[in-house]
């Protein structure tokens, strides 16, 4: 719109200047300039124009002196281009269109033009046009804003309809990850999302069926192990009693018979230990394993455990003095933990085997009794580290027929977890393996309604 108004003003101004130039002397004085200005202004008196003219040092204007609105750049452009030149300017926040037009004379054959030295200027306020344009722009902006808001609302509604099945799928996936394998999605329509929902339902159903079958087989395996262990327990007890009696008379037998008897006795002992371990694992699987807690002096307890197995001279112990570290544990289960860890270190590691005890503080204000067993052997293979506490796992295939059942560390880990503790395995820099057990530091005095007491087993 501003462009159309500008073109109209320039055309009208050019026409008016051409009409006046015919009657203006070639060397006009100040009165001639004023007459030319007045003639242009009178021809366009309803337009609110301000007309100015210059010739040399003479100037004329009407109705006001607006020469300050003519920039030096515009003055130079008028003389350089020999044509109408315009510029939009602002003065005190009001827009103006300034037009400069030189008066030229054509040669007789009209092949050339020369400047007469007379230049006419026009200053036109454009506040009305600018206000109109501003109003139109504002109206367009408001209409665009309304349309945008409406479009956003419609887009959100459409997106909500599209994303609703996706959100439902996300919720169902999370529930499945939490173990709710019976979750299903409603299938609506026949589009891609409906196909995806149906595929999810099929996958969930197949997974639920597979997991149920695995659980059934696992339960059967556990029952089988428990039943076999129970059935073997009685005859093994009799066999153990017989071999113990025969062991006492082994020295009276010949060498070959004595060796055979010792072989049978060792095999019976290993089988009895395996059955005992299997029955212990069965109790963990059945969820019937319980703690019989008692407060013990940890240093004294460790000494008793090592002495009962004849290991005192083979294990270096360090930690608080007797009476310096007391905590509530199940003595039988802690004895199993210590025996398994120290026994493994003695069998598969190398001297010196060390057992260290201490206290560790972890936020938020939790105290732990720490037991660490280290050896100086080859350590644990990197490939075996993730499986070290799994049942029947043996780090070396050469040990598959050894005295180890592969259940010792699994039972150890179960006993530690039953105490709400933690167990970890790592390799020691420089060689050797380290097993660390953390048990909650608890005392009888921590229990409500009980006096401080308890003793070592």
UniProtKB/TrEMBL annotation:
Record InterPro entries: HAMP_dom, HATPase_C_sf, HATPase_dom, His_kinase_dom, HisK_dim/P_dom, HisK_dim/P_sf, Sig_transdc_His_kin-like_C, TCS_sensor_his_kinase
GO cellular component: plasma membrane
EC number, as in UniProt: 2.7.13.3
Keywords: Coiled coil, Kinase, Membrane, Phosphoprotein, Transferase, Transmembrane, Transmembrane helix, Two-component regulatory system
KW Kinase (keyword) present: yes
Coiled-coil intervals, chain numbering: 200-227
Transmembrane residue ranges: 145-166
Keyword Kinase among UniProt keywords: yes
Cellular localisation: Cell membrane
GO molecular function, one term: phosphorelay sensor kinase activity
Domain of life: Bacteria
Domain named Histidine kinase: residues: 227-443
Reaction(s) this enzyme catalyzes, per UniProt: ATP + protein L-histidine = ADP + protein N-phospho-L-histidine
Record-linked CDD domains: HAMP (cd06225), HATPase (cd00075), HisKA (cd00082)
Residues in HAMP domain copies: 160-212
UniProt cross-references to PANTHER family, sorted A to Z: SENSOR HISTIDINE KINASE TRCS, SENSOR HISTIDINE KINASE YKOH
Protein name stated in the entry: histidine kinase
Source species of the chain: Actinacidiphila rubida
């Amino acid at each position: 719109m501003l462009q159309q108004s500008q073109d109209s003003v320039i055309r009208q101004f050019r026409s008016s200047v051409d009409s006046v130039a015919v009657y203006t002397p070639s060397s006009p004085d100040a009165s001639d300039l004023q007459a030319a200005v007045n003639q242009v202004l009178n021809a366009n008196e309803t337009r609110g124009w301000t007309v100015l003219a210059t010739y040399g040092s003479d100037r004329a204007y009407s109705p006001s002196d607006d020469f300050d609105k003519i920039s030096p750049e515009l003055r130079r452009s008028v003389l350089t281009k020999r044509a109408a030149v315009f510029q939009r300017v602002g003065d005190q926040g009001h827009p103006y269109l300034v037009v400069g037009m030189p008066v030229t004379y054509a040669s007789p054959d009209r092949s050339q033009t020369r400047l007469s030295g007379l230049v006419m200027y026009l200053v036109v306020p454009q506040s009305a046009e600018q206000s109109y344009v501003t109003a139109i722009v504002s109206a367009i902006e408001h209409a665009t804003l309304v349309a945008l808001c409406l479009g956003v609302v419609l887009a959100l509604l459409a997106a909500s309809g599209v994303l609703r099945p996706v959100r439902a799928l996300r919720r169902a996936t999370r529930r499945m990850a939490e173990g709710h394998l019976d979750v299903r999605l409603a299938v609506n329509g026949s589009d891609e999302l409906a196909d995806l929902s149906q595929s999810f339902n099929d996958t969930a159903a197949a997974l639920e069926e597979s997991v149920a079958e695995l659980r059934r087989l696992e339960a059967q395996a556990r029952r089988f192990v428990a039943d076999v262990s129970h059935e073997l327990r009685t005859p093994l007890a009799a066999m153990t009693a017989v071999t113990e009696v025969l062991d006492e008379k082994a020295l009276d037998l010949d060498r070959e018979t004595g060796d055979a008897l010792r072989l049978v006795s060792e095999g019976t002992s290993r089988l009895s230990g395996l059955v005992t371990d299997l029955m212990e694992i069965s109790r963990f699987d059945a969820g019937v394993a319980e703690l019989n807690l008692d407060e013990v002096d940890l240093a004294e307890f460790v000494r008793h455990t090592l002495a009962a197995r004849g290991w005192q001279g083979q294990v270096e112990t360090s930690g608080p003095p007797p009476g310096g570290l007391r905590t509530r544990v199940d003595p039988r289960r802690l004895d199993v933990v210590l025996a398994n860890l120290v026994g493994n270190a003695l069998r598969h590691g190398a001297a010196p085997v060390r057992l260290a005890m201490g206290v560790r503080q972890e936020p938020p204000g939790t105290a732990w009794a720490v037991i660490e067993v280290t050896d100086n052997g080859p350590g644990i293979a990197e490939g075996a580290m993730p499986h070290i506490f799994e049942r029947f796992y043996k780090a070396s295939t050469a040990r598959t027929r050894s005295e180890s059942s592969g259940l010792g560390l699994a039972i150890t880990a179960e006993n530690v977890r039953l105490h709400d503790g933690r167990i970890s395995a790592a390799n020691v820099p420089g060689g050797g393996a380290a097993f660390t057990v953390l048990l909650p530091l608890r005392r009888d005095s921590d229990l409500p309604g009980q006096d401080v007491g308890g003793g070592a087993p």
